[in-house]
């Protein structure tokens, strides 16, 4: 088991090294897009597929509460799969419309949709991406190396943060680091850069 743990560390470190070469500019662009969205008075709408839902929750917690600095809350919404909201939507509609119905009720032009989709092809994610395009809402998509299903859905106004891994656990770990980096950059740009 000790060898297995060492292998897991090695795999994680190699993924992070690859990400450090591929993602910094994209992370800065994502942070800038989110800062500009907030400064315009718009909101950040977040959803996650499968286990990535936990990362989506974490991002919204950082935005609504705080990341590192004590600061005002940022307007952000987690599209919900828990409790009565998710249950009611799924009971009355197809599960693929779970995010779509919530998104259509709250999204406005100028908002940003952040989608966590580490593995390919969930229909509820495809549906919400199409809704975002129709509502002229910019998209930041967190994905993995095998996410061809996003091709053709994202426009030149959108941004994909693709973790350089195919194993879902490594993708989620990389996404969590990216979330933390983006939140730190948002705080830095809004509250400390010009101090």
UniProtKB/TrEMBL annotation:
Q: Name one GO biological process term.
A: carbohydrate derivative metabolic process
At the top level, the lineage of the source is: Bacteria
Query: Which chain regions cross the lipid bilayer?
Result: none
Which residues belong to any copy of the SIS domain?
A: 34-195
Tell me one Pfam family matched here.
SIS_2
Q: Name one GO molecular function term.
A: carbohydrate derivative binding
Return the SUPFAM superfamilies for the record.
SIS domain
InterPro entries per the record? Answer: GmhA/DiaA, SIS_dom, SIS_dom_sf, SIS_GmhA/DiaA_subfam
Q: What is the protein name given in its UniProt record?
A: DnaA initiator-associating protein DiaA
Q: Which organism is it from?
A: Pasteurella bettyae CCUG 2042
